[in-house]
C-alpha cells in the first residue's frame, strides 16, 4: 500500500508533508503535490501534517477520488522531487474550502 495526494491539494500545495517524509517520496507540480508510490514506505507521517486532509492511504481514498491513485503514479514519473518545506500557494486558504478542483490541475 502507498499514500495518495488527492484533490484538496490542488491550488493549495502546502508542503508540511514534505518536511516529515523520511524517503523524499513527494513530487512537485505547479499547483499540486503527488507521492511517488515506488518511493513511499507507508510510514503515515505525512497524513496528520496535511492541513487540508488531502492525503489518504491507497485503500482509503474516497470512491469519487479513486482516479488520484493513478494520477499520483503518472505525475510522479515526470515531476521533480521536493525535499524541503516551502510556502503554500498565495491563495491556499481560499482554495482549501473549494471542492471539485480537478479541472484546475496544472501538469506542467
Automatic annotation (TrEMBL):
<dbReference type="InterPro" id="IPR022569">
    <property type="entry name" value="Fd_C"/>
</dbReference>
<keyword id="KW-0479">Metal-binding</keyword>
<feature type="domain" description="4Fe-4S ferredoxin-type">
    <location>
        <begin position="31"/>
        <end position="60"/>
    </location>
</feature>
<keyword id="KW-0408">Iron</keyword>
<protein>
    <submittedName>
        <fullName>Ferredoxin-1</fullName>
    </submittedName>
</protein>
<dbReference type="GO" id="GO:0051539">
    <property type="term" value="F:4 iron, 4 sulfur cluster binding"/>
</dbReference>
<dbReference type="Pfam" id="PF12800">
    <property type="entry name" value="Fer4_4"/>
</dbReference>
<dbReference type="InterPro" id="IPR054829">
    <property type="entry name" value="FdxA"/>
</dbReference>
<keyword id="KW-0003">3Fe-4S</keyword>
<feature type="domain" description="4Fe-4S ferredoxin-type">
    <location>
        <begin position="1"/>
        <end position="30"/>
    </location>
</feature>
<dbReference type="GO" id="GO:0009055">
    <property type="term" value="F:electron transfer activity"/>
</dbReference>
<keyword id="KW-0813">Transport</keyword>
<dbReference type="Pfam" id="PF11953">
    <property type="entry name" value="DUF3470"/>
</dbReference>
<keyword id="KW-0004">4Fe-4S</keyword>
<dbReference type="Pfam" id="PF00037">
    <property type="entry name" value="Fer4"/>
</dbReference>
<dbReference type="InterPro" id="IPR017896">
    <property type="entry name" value="4Fe4S_Fe-S-bd"/>
</dbReference>
<keyword id="KW-0411">Iron-sulfur</keyword>
<dbReference type="GO" id="GO:0051538">
    <property type="term" value="F:3 iron, 4 sulfur cluster binding"/>
</dbReference>
<keyword id="KW-0249">Electron transport</keyword>
<dbReference type="GO" id="GO:0046872">
    <property type="term" value="F:metal ion binding"/>
</dbReference>
<dbReference type="InterPro" id="IPR050294">
    <property type="entry name" value="RnfB_subfamily"/>
</dbReference>
<dbReference type="InterPro" id="IPR000813">
    <property type="entry name" value="7Fe_ferredoxin"/>
</dbReference>
<keyword id="KW-0677">Repeat</keyword>
<dbReference type="InterPro" id="IPR017900">
    <property type="entry name" value="4Fe4S_Fe_S_CS"/>
</dbReference>
